[in-house]
Amino acid sequence: MTGGAAPEYARLFVEGLKEADVEVVTALPESLLASVYRLCAADNAIRYIQVSNEADMPGICAGTYLAGKRAMMIMENSGIRQCCEPVARLAFQHALPMVMAMSYRGEWGEQNWWGHNHAQTMAPILDALRIPHRFVTEPDEIKPAIKRAFKHADGSNWPVALVFSGNCVELPAYAKD
Amino acid sequence: MQRIDAFRAIAPSIAAEDLVTTSIGATWDDWWNLKPDADNTFFTGVLGSVTSTALGLAVSLPHRRIVAFESDGSMLMNTGILCTLGAERPPNLTVLVFDNGIYENIGGPPTLTSKNTDLARMAEGAGCLNCATVDRPDALAERFSTMLDDGEMGYLVAKIEPGKHPWEWKDRKPTDGIEDKYRFLRYVERLEGVVIHPGAPQN
């Protein structure tokens, strides 16, 4: 299912992946980055590995890195709770770089009662794991953010996180106002 | 068949050019002593991520044989990876699970494979190919060797008896997780002719 033309943010996201030489994307699809998952799955230049639990993804990224290739894991911010243990061990025990992208469920104005805990726990968990994170809110920030995320991860031998929000997700929170 | 017997049965099938991930525990010392004379093994210190790390290697290096040495404890920690494997079916990946039914390194409480869980049947149900269980060294050696070269993924469970080989302290794996990473990473760089971790930025 193509679902029509992709929104600008998703197109720039996938272009940014390719410009950063990302060959493997592993993801657990959710609604806020829906077009990104759809484009990655349909792109022959990207090996797209869909998982059913975010805990699969850090190992996939680590193996890809150790093979000399680049991978990105993409998920909702709730996923950091699921993959916290393998991320912690791969980082603290092996000093492995990793680039994760997540949508910011629980944005200011979130109307879903179940979405607030995702925002409330995301930053404390990332901080506990000593993972630096940057918000990406405007489309023109996407490509440089992805490129610099890989430089930062490789240079620090540590995971980094990009948090997509504002005009870089499927349905900005303000659109519901 | 104890773990050391199983390792001795399959070790001749692994070449230095193959890449291996291993589960944590007694597996480390056995394989450290029996592996090829090369840094072809990433001693993965993460229960539940041994197969996923091997999957990342397998999809990134499709021309190379990739092996994951799993344990029942590690597999049970993240059985969801079976579904991912069943969807991807990487043809160059062989998973070998050493299943002793206990958490041996912490004194031996049972894992759930000692109850009603059958990992090979779970893998088959998840869509994995060539799923089998063996309990004898000769059968293990034959099935494992076939799986390495049949051009399809393989998922082999070796039922083993409890018991750790009494390696002397000097023969135990001496490296930690950071050294393990660099040894493996530099080996892959030489093997594949690539630069994974340069000492300085290129630009």
Protein architecture, described:
The complex is a heterodimer of chains A (177) and B (203). Chain A is α/β, with parallel strands linked by helices and 177 residues long. Chain A has one domain (8-171): Thiamin diphosphate (ThDP)-binding fold, Pyr/PP domains (Rossmann fold). Chain A has helices spanning 8-19, 34-42, 57-66, 79-82, 84-92, 116-128, 142-156, and strands spanning 22-27, 47-50, 70-76, 98-103, 133-136, 159-164. Chain A has a six-stranded parallel β-sheet with strand order 2-1-3-4-6-5, sandwiched between helices. In chain A, helix 7 links the parallel strand 5 (133-136) and strand 6 (159-164). In chain A, helix 1 (8-19) crosses helix 2. Chain B is of the alpha/beta class and 203 residues long. Chain B has a single domain (3-192), classed as Rossmann fold (3-Layer(aba) Sandwich). Helices cover 39% and strands 15% of the residues of chain B. Chain B contains eight helices and six strands, in the order αβαβαβααβαβαβα. Chain B has helices at 3-10, 26-34, 50-60, 72-77, 80-88, 119-125, 137-149, 177-192; strands spanning 19-22, 41-43, 66-71, 93-99, 131-134, 154-159. A six-stranded parallel β-sheet of chain B has the order 2-1-3-4-6-5, with helices on both faces. In chain B, helix 1 (3-10) packs parallel to helix 2, helix 1 packs across helix 7 (137-149) and helix 5 packs across helix 6 (119-125). Chain B is globular. Chain B starts with a helix and ends in an 11-residue tail after the last helix. The relative contact order of chain B is 0.18. Classes of the chains: A alpha/beta (177), B alpha/beta (203). The A-B interface holds A 23-24, 47, 49-53, 55-69, 71, 85-86, 89-90, 93-96, 151, 154-155, 157 and B 21, 42, 44-46, 48-61, 78, 80-81, 83-84, 87-88, 176-178, 180-181, 184-185, 188-189, 192, 194-197, 201.
